[in-house]
Structure formats: C-alpha cells, structure tokens
Write a structure and sequence with these properties.
By secondary structure, the protein is an alpha/beta fold. The protein has two domains: about 170 residues, HAD superfamily/HAD-like (Rossmann fold); about 60 residues. The protein contains ten helices and eight strands. The two termini are about 15 Å apart.
Length: about 240
C-alpha cells in the first residue's frame, strides 16, 4: 500500500547494504506503538469501580479499542462528572498502570508483530526502547511480548527499559542514542509520541522514522518534516513480493 512505501524502501536499501556497513537497527517504542493500552486502562477502571460502585455504569460504556490517552477523560466523555472520584481514580491509575500485573493486559495493534519479524528477517537488530520502567514492568513486558508473538530478548533482540519510573521518557531515550550509535546504525524507528519521533529524526537524520498515529500525550509538539505518519502498520504489504 502506498502509505507503507517508506518502510518498503528502507527494506530495499537493506538488501543492498554493504557487508562492511554498521549493523542496521530497528527501534520500537512499546506503549501505543506496538501495544494498545486500552485494555490495560479499561481493566484499571473496572478494578477501581469495585470500590466506587457509582462509577461502574460509566465504565461499562467504555470500549478498549476506543479509549484515549487519559481514562479519566474517557469517563468524562461517557458522562461521569464527579471530580473528587475522578481524582481518586487518577491516583489509583498512577499506582497500577505501571505494573507487571496490568501491563500484561495490553492489546496488540494489527500488523505490529509481523512488522517486527519482517525487519528482523531483513537483518535488523530489534531494539525495544520503552518508557516502561525496569523495576516495575520488566516481567510483565516479557510476558506480553511472548504472548503476542514478538521476538524475545536474545543476541539480536534488545529490551531497554527506564531504570526508574520517575525519569522523563524523552530524556531517557535521548541518553540511549549514544548506545544505539555504538551498536550500529538506526535505519528505522517507530514511535507514537511526536516529541520522541522528532528526537529520533534529529539524532538519526538518515533513518526512516515512523509515527504510528494511535494516541499520544496532550498538547503534542509539531512533527518535524520528514517523519512518516501511518494510521496503521497492517496490510497486504507485509506479505508482498518486496519482502521476499
């Protein structure tokens, strides 16, 4: 499909890459790029409604695949207006969203598993670079990757999580750029946050940087020219002759 041409062109370049060139790397964010967090947010809202029963009719109106970046906003859109309870939910969400237990509940966006395998088979080192934190989410993340069928950490698959929950995601990823340069050459990067996508393109101007247009934090920065925006990563292109 035409919108996937940037990825296909990157794959074609991999086929003619000189043997002495640095190892090609494909970098993937996880939350809202490969994984859909809607089921996680919905599970958290349902768990909280066990304590605040007045919330349950509104939670029952939510659909995981339609949920946005903020579950509190989703409930307000469903008609719930008690600010005190929404504040309680916000605290509950912050204590549960970044945990092994709930991260296992994420869904997977169509085409993402196939994409990672295609690029790995094309010779790319798979590098999961995520704002999830190592102390609280490594085991749940490994479980989710395995359950979905993504490649697991090995010689050519790296999972890099934040050392602490408190660290800013963009600052963390920016610090990792030097590690990536030492490993090889970033040829593709996939993100859902515009600021992070901009950071990748500025650090690796020859890379194909893709913004998966799912959900993102409020008030996003403008995207830099040259970033490719895709509504979906799925499609027949994943089985096309160009991938053979």
């Amino acid at each position: 499909m035409p919108q996937h041409h940037p990825i296909l062109e990157a794959i074609e370049r991999l086929k003619t890459r000189p043997a002495h060139a640095p190892r090609p790397i494909a970098v993937y964010d996880l939350d809202s790029t490969l994984f859909c967090t809607g089921p996680r947010n919905l599970a958290i809202a349902r768990a909280f409604s066990e304590y605040r029963h007045e919330l349950r009719p509104f939670v029952d109106r939510l659909e995981a695949h339609r949920m946005g970046w903020n579950v509190m906003a989703d409930l307000q859109e469903a008609g719930f207006a008690d600010e005190a309870i929404l504040t309680e939910l916000r605290h509950f969400w912050r204590a549960t969203f970044f945990t092994d237990h709930f991260v296992k509940m994420d869904g997977v966006y169509p085409g993402t598993v196939e994409l990672v395998h295609v690029l790995r088979n094309a010779g790319c080192l798979t590098y999961y670079l995520t704002g999830r934190d190592d102390p609280g989410m490594r085991q749940g993340t490994l479980h989710a990757l395995e359950s979905a069928g993504f490649p697991l950490p090995s010689e050519d698959v790296i999972l890099h999580l934040k050392p602490t929950w408190e660290e800013d995601d963009l600052a963390f990823k920016t610090q990792v750029f030097e590690d990536l340069r030492a490993l090889g050459e970033v040829v593709l990067a996939f993100e859902n946050e515009p600021a992070n996508a901009n950071g990748f393109l500025r650090a690796f101007p020859s890379a194909t940087v893709v913004l998966h247009a799912t959900i993102h934090a409020p008030d996003p920065v403008p995207l830099d020219p040259g970033i490719h925006v895709l509504e979906t990563l799925a499609g027949q292109w994943l089985q096309g002759p160009a991938l053979q």
